[in-house]
C-alpha cells in the first residue's frame, strides 16, 4: 500500500545488530563512559510527570506518567540515549493530543542516560532486549490496571524497534506506532504481529538494516503477511530521529551529521500518530 506525501510501505525484517548502527555513527574513540542519573537529566515539563514504580518478576523499575486519568494509555519508549529530555517532550506532546492520552515512560536503563554517542551505544549494547519487552508488558498492564481500557505502545529509534516487538510479543497491546526502528528477527518477527502497526521512517536515514528505506520496505512485506492493519510512512528529505525538534535535540542531531529540519514532516507524522491511536484505542 502507498500513500502520497509520506509513502506507505512494509518489509521483510532485516537483522539489527548494534554493530550495524555503530558503523554509521562517529567513532567512539576518545569518549569516556560516564553516566548521570535520571534525576540530573534536563527534561522539559518535568514537574508535570508523576514518578511511579512498577514491579515485574524479581525486578522493580521507575516509570514516568503524564496526562489525563482514565484516558487511553500509551507506553512511550526511549531512544538509545535513555529517559532524557527528548523522550519526555514526546510523552508530554502525546498526552496533549486530542482526545487526550495517559502517557507512561518506563525507564529501561534503570536510571542511566547517555551523554554522547559512545555512552548511548554502550547502554544499548548492554540492554537485555527480552527483559525490556517484559518491562513494556508490565507497563501496559499497569496502565490497564489504573484506568486505561485500551493501551498502545510507541517508541523512537531503539524504542521504535521495541514497539514493533511488543506488537508480536505483548498480547495486551492494542495498537503500535513505531518511529525509525525495526527489531531483529531473533527478537520478534513482524509477520507475527497481532496489534495494528503504524511505522515512520526518514528517506535519508542511514542506519542500514535498522531504519533505512530498505528496512522500511522490508517491514512492510512482513506486516502485509501478518494480516493486521498497518501503515509504513517514509518522509522525503528527512533523516533518522527527525521527530526530535527541541533546541537540544536539533543540536545533537546536527552533531551526528543530521542537519535536516522539516517541521511539516513532524506535524504530518504527529497527525498520522493521532489518527492511528485514536482509531484503535477508542472504546
TrEMBL record:
Residues 61-280 form the Dienelactone hydrolase domain. Pfam families: DLH (PF01738). InterPro entries: AB_hydrolase_fold, Dienelactn_hydro, Dienelactone_hydrolase-like. One of its GO terms (molecular function) is hydrolase activity. Gene3D superfamilies: alpha/beta hydrolase (3.40.50.1820). This is Dienelactone hydrolase domain-containing protein. It comes from Acer negundo (Box elder).
